[in-house]
């Protein structure tokens, strides 16, 4: 019999065991500096017209696993791209200004019984310390790029500026067997940063599409990705937005996901 409370506890313990096995490394914060130009508006307009946004991301890599598959007997993922993938740069780290960011990942065709999302604070050696948020849910059985927004409520604290967090997504093939052989996991990092007043003012004066270049200049990966996804959902026939989406995935070496279905609805205006 399926017991959700027991399952959540078991999966939490399993995830801690998996994540605590990560190597310990020191982390020096590196925030990409914005591109300089005597005429930033002209550069932004040129990029948008060409369907290209060049994103700058932190050059510091953190230990992580943004892609993972399973060829083991009894595995539950398959299809054209049999990988569970976080939409993150290859450095495994993404920056954001959001207190409650949106996280994106790709899930392949699968027969998984449940999926687990977790967010932890980490200590000075990047080991998971405190659980910020965790939830489990039934994943789509069909390959898709999906997302989860960190809930903005009294139970979840907003991300602290300059604090590094580890986030992970796990597919559980068999809820009766919450062991490593039944679980496929990926994990990466998110850090909330502050922006200068002049950048914040530019964003306030900009449309959603105009903000893309600002986010790209500042290396704000999560803000950039969520905005592009929203534009795609609201303008499905816009080829320029599609080109930006493809270019963005190419820049982080995940271009093989560009044509995958995107599970996202246009938010009400």
Automatic annotation (TrEMBL):
It comes from the Bacteria. Residues 34-73 are annotated as: Disordered. Residues 1-26 form the signal peptide. The keyword Ribonucleoprotein does not apply. Keywords: Signal. Residues 34-53 have a biased composition (Polar residues). This is DUF928 domain-containing protein. The lineage of its organism: Bacteria, Bacillati, Cyanobacteriota, Cyanophyceae, Nostocales.
